[in-house]
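Sample entry (380 residues):
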Amino acid sequence: MQVNSSEDINIPKINSSAKYRKQENKFKNSTKQKNTKKIFPDSKHSESITSSDVRQGDLKYRKPGNYKSFKESLITRNNARVSSNEKFNSRKSTALIKSKTISFNEIPSWMKDNVYIRSGYRKPNQSFASCFSSLGYLHNEFINVWSHLAGVVLFIVLMFVTAIFVFPSIKTISIYDVLVTYIFLTGAVVCLLLSSIYHLFQCHSEQVANNFIKCDYIGIILLIIGSCVPAFFYAFYCHNFLKTLYISMMVIFGIITGIFVMTPKFSDSEWITIRASTFVLMALSGIIPFVHSLISFGLSYTYKALQIQYLTPMALFYIAGALIYGARIPERWFPGKFDIYFHSHQIFHFFVVFAAAFHYIGVINALHWTHKLAPICPAF
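Predicted structure, serialized as tokens:
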């Protein structure tokens, strides 16, 4: 059969009928609504949000729930991200600190002073610049350095305060009053400064550490002498021979102690108890003039002349600090837990500053009482 043209044949169209298109659109809309409800089942915005929107990476549609709860979830997520970043930075900072410090087992024998401090040691570097840079990061000497540097600043400020405000307020003040006051303040500054220098450069080398620790001991002796001079001066203010005798006695004790502490073995860790006891005994020798004044002049005069209400906490801080330092408390009880903060040497440092501050208040009050309120010099 021959076909003349395509017009003679009725070929059905491939396009879907209207009914089919209607069913297809209905099916698509139904699928679209189901996908939307899965994402935001309770949202009034569900008609305009589809799974394709989510797939496009729009963050605001990634969390199911209504808009309010979704906003809260975003805030929570952002806070969690910030917290995660902070933890990361903290871990990074800790790792940086650890990279600059070593453990007790890694340090040379000359640095092994406290077996209960297990970490946080600076690496021996033989560089003063490197030691000085350790002011800027945490290690087990960081608090020791800064606590006494702060004390240096404090007592230098007190020097100016005393010269500007205290001395001009006393009309009968003598050059000796100024001298004994500044002997104490200078002793405090020198002691705290030498202590800071030793702890800062202790990691340089064995020779430097040994030299600076002797300077540290000399500073302690100067502070003890400087503290006793104004106390003896005002306790025996009207008796030149006695105050000269006791001040000279304390200076001699200081020289003997200085010779003793300069011996090489005195710096060894095995001598820590003897070392602490030496300084305590030197300080306790000041009780002799106190008892003499008490017997000769009575409790009332001695209490006011020496300002016992300030000398008592001073003595307690010094003694407690020395005992804590000698006993290695609290790191003895919890080895490795107080490597950076609050080990015995740090407590001792803070107690020294507190004690010196109390003594300064006592000296200034003794100065005022002697020149303004003191009775006629008591007879011996």
